[in-house]
């Protein structure tokens, strides 16, 4: 199911780190992986990792080239790790989050096995995020058929029939907050397989407006009382 | 098929057949009129056994969704979705373009996938050109098609030494 992850943004940052600690240093694969980690820790936000050869590395870090001392030095590098923690994508605001009573995700496709697989993926994602699933059902398929003439000229008795089958799958989730719904829907939609379309229906819970919070006859009685007294 | 096959097996009296067969004394019916009885779409006719045929070519279109998959994956043909004509025209152009750009190098039909804005063209090529020429042509195709269709176009290429033959017809 997770094989449908869409690679909309290419290989991402995975390809940008070059393996191996420079030309002069040892060739072991384990050291190559560790040096990649070290380099990623040391880079500032937004800078690309640079290939350091052993000559260019500053003197105080040259002891890191020695494989035996590696695990001792790692504990001292925690200061740089926390700089990436303030994520610019997360925003905190004071207004209350919108609440959804029901979120209905309808997927349609030509291939039923693709929809089966996608349903497994969506249900797994919902469970991992802790979203309560109301029900997962399969609405009946729709077949659109039409009959055309087989030949380009005359031969009215010989026709050809085509059909297009659309299969559906509906996933209903309940009691979501707005931010959870946004995150879940974005994840689901980025991994939508090709040839599959999705329709979303949200049922929002709104607070009752102030002018109808109390019944009208209470107000009328108080108005009559004031009118009669005055 | 809507029209019944009059051509064979119908032990009919002469007046039920087409134009001229009622002249013949025997009961065997010959097809003399409409030539649209047999379906010829996307089928390779059986020959002497010397014609190599790939899996895609060997299966006629009624096997789609049973033994075959789709070559062009998009949502325009689904119920309630539009844009089928534009998609189809784009697909036809891309297939002809790639057939011409990589002339003689295509092992099988191209698979076109549309995911959000991205157009992914999956092609299997034969190793008839040196690799640097392939890389250049892939980059050229991607850039040209991206500018033409105003959307990111990605070419996913696999190469084979020769065509995979499913059977000989």
TrEMBL record, chain A:
Top-level taxon of the source organism: Eukaryota
Gene Ontology CC entries for this record:
mitochondrial small ribosomal subunit
Keyword Transit peptide in annotation: no
Query: From the Swiss-Prot or TrEMBL record, what is one GO molecular function term?
Result: structural constituent of ribosome
Q: Where is the Small ribosomal subunit protein uS10 domain?
A: 104-201
Please give the SUPFAM superfamilies that the UniProt record associates with this protein: Ribosomal protein S10
Q: Where in or outside the cell is it found?
A: Mitochondrion
A Pfam family that the UniProt record links to this protein: Ribosomal_S10
InterPro entries from the UniProt entry: Ribosomal_uS10, Ribosomal_uS10_dom, Ribosomal_uS10_dom_sf, Ribosomal_uS10m
Tell me where it mainly resides: mitochondrion
What keywords are assigned to this protein?
Mitochondrion, Ribonucleoprotein, Ribosomal protein
Biological processes annotated in GO: translation
What protein family does this chain belong to? Belongs to the universal ribosomal protein uS10 family.
Checking HAMAP family in the record gives: Ribosomal_uS10
Q: What is this protein called?
A: Small ribosomal subunit protein uS10m
Identify the species of origin.
Answer: Chelydra serpentina (Snapping turtle)
Q: What is the lineage of its organism?
A: Eukaryota, Metazoa, Chordata, Craniata, Vertebrata
Automatic annotation (TrEMBL), chain B:
Q: Name one Pfam family in it.
A: MRP-S24
Which InterPro entries does this one have?
A: Ribosomal_uS3m (IPR026146)
Q: List the GO biological process terms.
A: translation
The protein's UniProt keywords, in alphabetical order, are: Mitochondrion, Ribonucleoprotein, Ribosomal protein, Signal, Transit peptide
Name any GO cellular component annotation. Answer: mitochondrion
- What is the first-listed, main subcellular location in coarse terms? mitochondrion
Q: Which residues form the signal peptide?
A: 1-21
Cellular compartment(s): Mitochondrion
Entry's family note: Belongs to the universal ribosomal protein uS3 family.
Q: What's this protein's name?
A: Mitochondrial ribosomal protein S24
Q: Which organism is it from?
A: Chelydra serpentina
Q: What is the lineage of its organism?
A: Eukaryota, Metazoa, Chordata, Craniata, Vertebrata
């Amino acid at each position: 199911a997770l094989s449908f992850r869409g690679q909309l943004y290419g290989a991402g940052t995975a390809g940008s780190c070059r393996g191996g600690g420079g030309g002069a240093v040892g060739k072991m694969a384990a050291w190559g992986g560790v040096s990649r980690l070290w380099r990623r820790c040391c880079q500032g936000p937004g800078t690309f990792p640079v290939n350091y050869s052993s000559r260019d590395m500053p003197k105080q870090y040259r002891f890191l080239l020695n494989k035996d001392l590696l695990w001792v030095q790692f504990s001292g590098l925690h200061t740089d790790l926390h700089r990436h923690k303030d994520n610019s994508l997360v925003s905190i605001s004071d207004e209350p989050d919108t609440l959804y009573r029901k979120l209905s995700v309808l997927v349609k496709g030509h291939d039923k096995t693709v929809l089966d697989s996608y349903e497994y993926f969506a249900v797994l994602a919902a469970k991992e995020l802790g979203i309560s699933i109301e029900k997962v059902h399969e609405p009946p398929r729709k077949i659109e058929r039409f009959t055309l003439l087989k030949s380009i000229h005359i031969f009215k008795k010989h026709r050809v029939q085509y059909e297009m089958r659309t299969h559906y799958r509906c996933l209903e989730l309940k009691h979501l907050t707005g931010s959870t719904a946004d995150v879940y829907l974005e994840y689901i939609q980025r991994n939508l397989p090709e040839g599959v379309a999705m329709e979303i229906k949200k049922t929002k819970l709104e607070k009752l407006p102030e002018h109808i919070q109390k019944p009208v006859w209470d107000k009328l009685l108080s108005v009559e009382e004031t009118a009669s007294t005055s | 098929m809507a029209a019944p096959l009059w051509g064979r097996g119908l032990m009919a009296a002469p007046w039920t057949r087409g134009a001229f067969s009622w002249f013949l004394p025997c009961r065997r019916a010959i097809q003399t009129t409409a030539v649209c009885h047999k379906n010829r779409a996307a089928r390779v006719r059986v020959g002497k056994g010397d014609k190599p045929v790939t899996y895609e070519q060997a299966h006629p279109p009624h096997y789609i969704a049973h033994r075959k998959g789709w070559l062009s994956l998009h949502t325009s043909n689904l119920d309630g979705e539009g844009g089928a004509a534009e998609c189809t025209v784009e697909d036809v152009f891309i297939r002809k373009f790639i057939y011409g750009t990589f002339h003689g190098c295509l092992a099988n039909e191209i698979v076109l996938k549309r995911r959000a804005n991205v157009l992914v063209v999956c092609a299997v090529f034969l190793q008839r050109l040196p690799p640097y020429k392939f890389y250049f042509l892939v980059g050229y195709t991607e850039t040209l098609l991206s500018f033409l269709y105003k959307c990111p176009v990605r070419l996913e290429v696999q190469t084979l030494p020769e065509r995979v033959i499913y059977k000989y017809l």
